[in-house]
Specification:
138 residues; alpha+beta; Alpha-D-Glucose-1,6-Bisphosphate, Chain A, domain 4; seven-stranded antiparallel β-sheet; 7 strands; globular
């Protein structure tokens, strides 16, 4: 099983950041390459569409509003992996008016090397977090 992650510090409170990214249907609000998100199965599944029309279906696995974290898996998508499980975590940075956001995942590469799959998701996570930070210019 391969793993990838990215972390960023954002000049805002954890509550402000969680308000934007904590909703399972909120990706189009802060992630530019996700054009559309529709919830199904009582809010447990999100059907995403990218700007080029690619469809990704993700399933919410755990959600903890108080701890500001959730995990999700991919049911359908263009990625060369199986057994995908990702986590989004928002934490206050003690003593600063900053928030740390971590986006991480584990997966089994399928048809690509571990290094290629790690590079792919590291890029997705770090690019996504960079896009998130733009919403909080500080």
């Amino acid at each position: 099983m391969a793993k990838a992650s990215a972390t960023i510090e954002i000049p805002a409170t954890a509550d402000q950041v969680w308000q934007l990214i904590g909703g399972f249907n909120s990706l189009p609000d802060w992630l530019p390459f996700i054009a559309k998100s529709e919830l199904g199965e009582g809010g447990r599944v999100r059907h995403l569409e990218t700007g080029d029309g690619t469809v990704i279906v993700e399933r919410l696995q755990t959600f903890d509003d108080k701890a500001r974290t959730y995990t999700y898996s991919i049911d359908q998508g263009p990625f060369p992996v199986t057994d995908y499980l990702a986590k989004v975590q928002v934490r206050e940075v003690a003593g600063k008016q900053m928030t740390q956001v971590e986006w991480s995942g584990s997966f089994t590469p399928a048809g690509v090397t571990d290094a290629e799959a790690v590079e792919l998701f590291s890029g997705v996570y770090s690019g996504g977090l960079d896009a998130l930070k733009v919403n909080f210019p500080g």
